[in-house]
Amino acid sequence: MKYTVGAVIKEPGSTRRNKTGSWRIFRPVLDHEACVHCGRCYMYCPDGCISLDPEKGYVIDYDYCKGCGICAKVCPVDAIEMVLEED
Amino acid sequence: MPGRIPKRPPLPEEELLAPGHRACAGCGSALCLRLCMKALGPDTVVVMPTGCMEVTTTPYPETAWEVPWIHVAFENAAAVASGVEAALKALDKKDDVTVAVFAGDGGTVDIGFQALSGMLERGHDVVYVCYDNEAYMNTGVQRSGATPMFAVTTTTPAGRRWKGEFRPKKDAPRIAAAHDIPYVATACVSHPQDLVKKVQKAKEIEGPAYVHVLCPCPPGWGYDSSETVEIGELAVDTGMWMLYEIEEGEFRLTYKPRERKPVEEYLKRQKRFSHLTEEEIQRIQRMVDERWEELEKEGSTTD
User: Fold this and answer.
1) A2, A21, B95, B187 — which has fewest CB within 10 A?
2) B55 at the A interface (CB within 8 A)?
């Protein structure tokens, strides 16, 4: 690791190198058949790891999802289930 | 599939706070910053004092920020933001750039208070956002001036003599408003559209703007990480936290619960209030009732 003068960090958004998905105990699984695309899960995700895919609808990025479970709680149609991570 | 896939999600898509940051799962403050950045957009310079979000978003040599960002000491974020704003003005670039401060409650109502007051007094065009999780969570939950009455922190424990914090929460937004600045608002992460609207307004208004956002904290308040939004909603629906704005001195409630829920519904969901007896709960209820009565006397309106 190279330290910089004044602790300057030159690469924006570089925390992306750190995959916080490894923190997860429960995995949110979205049922696309039940999803009404209200976007509440997207709005309330503290890690910004839910995005809108033009083909699939809302998708969850498991590289960064910490498994907090907020999305499952705020979903008005219970389309997100929290499933225990097995491996 | 019920309904077509919309073209766009409800708020701007660009994530200016990158994932991979080290905030706890379910962090209300991380959600607050993410939403604020959606309101402010990419042409923003962010100044942050020490605090939860500074530590978790910039684990050297990494940063979660996609915009220019500067960390300064606990006490002087507002002073540095003033300097950044003055420099941009001198370079004739202020029209294109927003200067924003994100500071916690400790960095705002306690340690950074004099710098904030100075910035408001001098009238710098800065958006100051206080993400309030009601204690020094970063160092392990010590009370701050924003800790509410009877909340347990490591420095205000509950036992035979003490019932947790014994002083009421400092009313920082009203103190900011007393500086006669163009815009003051309160918000809560449970109401993201209201929050984004207020931060956008703060950005557009010329001169200092102060936005105080209640950010529930799973480890500090003692509830499950999935309940951050519910706890925020309860804070608003019980009247423990009011959503309002003060624009050019005009006070306006932006959300009024149809019928205020008893404060007990909010308190009993959190470990930091689990020691409360009926007597303390009633005292908090009276404090909240009095505050709302006062407000109604002011003749405020809602839309």
Assistant:
1) A2
2) no
